[in-house]
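Handout, page 2. Input:
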Amino acid sequence: MDTIDQQAICFEKSGAEKISIPLISEEPLSIRIQGSPYAVVMRTPGNEKEHVAGFCLAEGIVDSTKEIIAIGFCDGSDTNVITVTLTAARREKISGFLDRRGYISQTSCGICGKEIVEDLTQKLKPVPDGIVLDVDKTLDCLNHLTDHQPLRKKTKASHATVIYGKHYKAISSAEDVGRHNALDKAVGRLFLEERLDEAAFLTLSSRISYELVQKAARARIPVLLAISRPTALAVKLASELNMAVATLSIEDDLIVYCNPHRLKKMNP
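Output:
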């Protein structure tokens, strides 16, 4: 399933409206080479064999399709584990390469998004309730994200994270070619300055994936706003951790996917 319908609340100028909105699915795919765990990648389900074939070519695991004996699912096509079997000649040629561990390895055949959320919620504590944010002010901060992106203005190729305090003033920002890196940098600055307790919400230039929710949860930042829609797995994790996730609508209103008690239309 490549999309999941999510119930959300859209804060419009005239008020709040309940809506149903499709979110792109995000699931782990565990890639095994010769039966041994090699990598776990997050992806939208579908075309797994093609995905893994392209991955193996890009990684240098194979140079030709003739070096692949088989690409198959572990215990049926409804699992998130796929195994690549190579020819003996290719295995010997890249034996040292396969020993490296540059990726997250998983040994379970039953790996799934539900297990990721359950595992993370056991390790992460839900973020406690606190201040309620003004929808219009947070939306204004999101709309001014580009003000904090000098690299993007020069290169058109960077992601950004801006962290705000309870008075809607930016207290940390960072840009990077990677969206995860940008968030780490912005959080890291406040962390080193021992000011993370000042963070009330953050804005992101990218879509919200479950990893970004996880990073924000570790920093105890309760509200994430982004330009693009979140993944379904990100919303599920945020919901479990008492965090709000919100994005822009086509009409530039604010759509809140979970824990809407953290945002409210204030009186003008």
